[in-house]
Amino acid sequence: MAKKDDCIFCKLANHVIETDYVYEDDLVCAFKDANPQAPVHVLVVPKDHYDNIVDDVPADVLAAMVHAVGEVARACGIDESGFRVIANTGEAAGQTVMHLHMHVLGGTRLGEESMGSE
Ligand code: AMP
Ligand code: ZN
Fold it and tell me: Quick check: 105 and 41 in contact, CB under 8 A?
């Protein structure tokens, strides 16, 4: 199981540092974003370290992440109202934490400015 010692999301996803968890299974964790951009802003994070979505991520990890998105949406009550899923990939896309994660954003009407265009 590959972890990176100096990676904050490795620590959060593996309970080395505790945070506000919304969902967890064997492969992934979901926890609240520290700087929320919407009323619901949760990060889905694999327990193993991958830099981003094109870092040879195993299919079972990708499937677990997508499954977790649905679990988060239901747990946060945004599965029917609608939500947005974003995986910023690389510096030019605004990825600031270099451990693969998906943002789940909802709980309001999202404008085009939410997590993206400037
Ligand atoms: P990105 O810009 O796509 O890499 O997203 C990184 C996200 O991680 C940002 O939305 C930050 O607010 C969030 N973040 C950074 N550190 C923490 C932390 N310790 N706990 C929760 N969220 C964090
Ligand atoms: Zn990591």
Answer: yes
Closest atom of ligand 1 to CA, residue 94:
2
Pocket of ligand 1 from Cβ distances under 6 Å = 8, 12, 19, 33-35, 43, 88, 94-97
pLDDT digits (tens, 9 = 90+) for 2-59: 999 999 999 999 999 999 999 999 999 999 999 999 999 999 999 999 999 999 999 9
In this structure, what token pair is assigned to residue 35? 């700087």
Give the integer Cα–Cα distance in Å for 72 and 105: 10
Distance of CA 1 from the midpoint of ligand 1 (Å): 22
**Residue matched to tokens 């009407």:** 109
For the full predicted model, state whether its pTM sits above 0.90.
yes
Residue-range domains of the chain with CATH: 8-106 (3.30.428.10)
Residue 112: is it exposed, middle or buried by C-beta count within 10 angstroms (0-12/13-18/19+)? exposed
